[in-house]
Amino acid sequence: MNISKDMFELVPKEEKNSDKVIRPSLSYWQDAWRRIKKNKLAMVSLIFIIIMVLAAIFGPILSRYNYTTQDLSSSDLFPSTTHWFGTDKFGRDLFVRVLMGARVSLTIGLVASVLSIFIGVLYGGISGYFGGLVDNIMMRIVEAIYAIPMTIYVILIMIVLKPGLTSIIIALTISFWVTMARIVRGQIISLKEQEFVLAAKTIGASPLRIILKHLIPNCIGTIIVTLTLSVPDAIFQEAFLSFIGLGIAPPLASWGSLASDALGGYQLYPYQLAFPAIAICLTMLAFNLLGDGLRDALDPKMRR
User: Fold this and answer.
1) Domains plus CATH for the chain?
2) Can you tell me the distance from the alpha carbon of 111 to that of 235, in angstroms, rounded to the nearest whole number?
C-alpha cells in the first residue's frame, strides 16, 4: 500500500490543544486551601480567631489600664469612651479584663487540645495497629477513664496542685485525649490493611515507623478537624469550671470567672455578664464553623 501526504491532513490548533490540562497540578494541601477559601463562613471564622488571638496577646500590653488595678471610685461604670466595656465592682476596666480572659481561655483551650491530640494519636495508633489483646486492654483503659466525670479529675488534681492554669490544663487533657484515641484507632484499623502498609512491612519497617510515618499522616485530616473542634469544647469546659469556682484563681481572669463575678449584679449591670458571655459564644461559634470548613476541605471525597 502506497502512503502519500495527500492521505493526511493537519490537525487544527484548537483540536490539538483540546486534551491539554489547563488547571495547574495542586498538592493535597494546596487543593484543601483552595476549597476552604471558597467557604466564606470558614474564612470569616478564621479571620475572627486570628484577630482574637492577636488582641489577647497584645491588647493587655498596649492598654493603659491594668487588669488587676482596682479603683473603687470608678466601680460599676457603664460602657463609655473611657472604659469601652465599663468597669466591674472593683473599678477594674472590663475591656482589658475580657482581653486577659481571652488570653487565659484560649491558652487553656489550645494547650489542652494539642496535648490531648499528641497523647490520643499515639495511643490510638498503637491500639489500632496491633489489635487483638493489646487493643482490648488499651480500649478498656480508655473506657474506664472516659466513665469518670471531668469534675472529679479537677477536684483530685487540685488536692495535689493549687488551683490555676496547670490544674485546668491537666484535667482537660486527661478528659479529652480518650476521644482522640478512639477516633485515631478507628482510622488506623481501616488503613492498616492497605497496600502501602504491606509494602512498608516488606522492606522491614518497624511497627513504630509504620505508625508514625505511614498511618498517622494518612489520618492528618481527621486529626486537624478534631483538634479544631476540641478547642471550643475545652474553652467551654474551662469557662464552666471557673464559673462554679473550680477554675482560674484570682488575680487571673478567664471568661468563666468574669461571668461568675458578674452574676450577682447582672440585673443592675447586665453588661458585666454580657461581654464575657458574648466572647465565649462568638469564639466557640468561630471554631466550630472553621472545623466544619476544614472537614469539608480535607475530605478527599469532596475534591472536584
Assistant:
1) 38-58+77-302 (1.10.3720.10)
2) 11
Give the pTM.
0.79
Rounded Cα gap, residues 113 and 227, in angstroms: 6
Burial (0-12, 13-18, 19+ Cβ within 10 Å), 117: buried
Residue 87 β-bridge partners: 93
One-letter amino acid of 247: G
Query: Region 284-295: what's the mean pLDDT?
Result: 87
Q: What is the dihedral of CA 170, 174, 179, 183, to 10 degrees?
A: 90
Tell me which residue of 81, 96, 66, 86 sits closest to 262, measured CA to CA. Answer: 86
d(CA 78, CA 237): 29
Could you give the CA distance from residue 237 to residue 269 in angstroms, rounded to a whole number? Answer: 25
Cα–Cα distance for residue pair 283/232, rounded to 1 Å: 7
Q: Which three cell numbers stand for residue 105?
A: 481561655
Residue 216: closest CA among 30, 160, 207: 207
> What is the dihedral sign for C-alpha 261, 167, 127, 139?
negative
Q: Quick one: which H or E segment has residue 111?
A: helix 94-130
Burial of 177 (0-12, 13-18, 19+ CB in 10 A): buried
Average pLDDT taken over every residue of the chain: 82
Measured CA to CA, the distance from residue 100 to residue 106 in angstroms comes to 10
Q: What interhelical angle do 94-130 and 132-147 show, nearest 10? A: 150
pLDDT tens string 47-59: 999 999 999 888 8
